[in-house]
Amino acid sequence: MLLTAVAALLIVTPVIGYRPRPDFKPNSSGLNLVDIKYHMGPVLTANITIHPIWYGPWRNSQKNIIRDFINSISAVHSKNPSVAGWWKTVQLYTDRKGANVSRTVLLGEEVNDRFYSHGKSLSRSSIQSVIKSAVTAAGMKRLPINSGSGLYLLLTSDDVYVQDFCTQICAFHGFMLQPIVGYTRLLYAWVGNSAELCPETCAFPFAVPEYMAGFKALKSPNGDVGVDGMISLIGHEVAELATDPLGNAWYGGQEMARVEIADMCEGIYGTRDDEPYTGSVLKGKDGATYNMNGIKRRYLVQWVWNHVVSDCTGPNALVK
Ligand SMILES: *[C@@H]1O[C@H](CO)[C@@H](O)[C@H](O)[C@H]1NC(C)=O
Ligand SMILES: *[C@@H]1O[C@H](CO)[C@@H](O)[C@H](O)[C@H]1NC(C)=O
Ligand SMILES: *[C@@H]1O[C@H](CO)[C@@H](O)[C@H](O)[C@H]1NC(C)=O
């Protein structure tokens, strides 16, 4: 289950590494044991702007896979099933006034932290320091401060270790209250490239743990196991930040085992059928597995919880 660390100025909700369980078939009767409910806090109803912070060395080809994904969320002309169609489930969540989550998600300004300003091994608190420096740094390019619906997305390269990475978490999101004098809060998420450390845990199903002898790793849609694996995690975090930015809006479960809308559907990429590990997904002519189209590429992104129908839903659902 999920851990929620609560400290004075910090609340984080991590994504546990998805471990495929051969005996586990996700289905709604099991999921319904947890009920996602609204707790009266804000959701992100204004245009959302995502600011990537590239920590460590990143190739432009890798950045473009991620940039194109972010730019696909509100794109109007992608082929179905689309990333924009996936976001429609997130838009079903409203605040106390009945305003929906924004349909607009924009790629904002970016910065590089190529030389590991806080080292190659980051603790939870140094993650916050990296993000703070990205908005306050003197003498170098810095990110604009948007304490409303700006999302600061820290992306660490495959040679960077983050506390509990691989053993307990693949990514997490949180917020800082009064991070800088004059500003009320900053929303952020961290997602690491697991290619070197634990692709079988954090980039499943593009890599498979040894104990799953019978399951062959699927071919990733953009030829980069680590980055293609990050896409689903980025989708997970952005969906949860939009619907539960301060940990007091849409969630379920017990206080110490909170579950948010993407936690409910981890490892589910399609209609549940005879394929217990992913659900029904698509295969390109090149053999790559995906479940949605972006503006220039294909992606495999987990589904999210739909509170209207009480099930995980996604744009590639099969009509039964
Ligand atoms: C769904 O999950 C529950 C609880 O794990 C299980 O008892 C039930 O048989 C499952 N149903 C289907 C259709 O797989
Ligand atoms: C929000 O985004 C839309 C679409 O890009 C744009 O037309 C609109 O002007 C933006 N609104 C604000 C307040 O920035
Ligand atoms: C807003 O949310 C409500 C309640 O879930 C839903 O019925 C409606 O379709 C949503 N609107 C949009 C534009 O998604």
From TrEMBL:
PANTHER family tied to this protein: PROTEIN EXORDIUM-LIKE 3 (PTHR31279:SF7), PROTEIN EXORDIUM-LIKE 5 (PTHR31279)
Similarity-based family: Belongs to the EXORDIUM family.
Source species taxonomy: Eukaryota, Viridiplantae, Streptophyta, Embryophyta, Tracheophyta
One Pfam family here: Phi_1
Statement: the UniProt record of this protein carries the keyword rRNA-binding: no
The organism's place on the tree of life at top rank: Eukaryota
Record protein name field: EXORDIUM like 3
GO CC annotation, single: apoplast
Subcellular localization, as worded in the UniProt entry: Secreted, Extracellular space, Apoplast
UniProt main location, coarse: secreted
Signal peptide: 1-17
Keywords tagged on the record: Apoplast, Secreted, Signal
InterPro entries: EXORDIUM-like
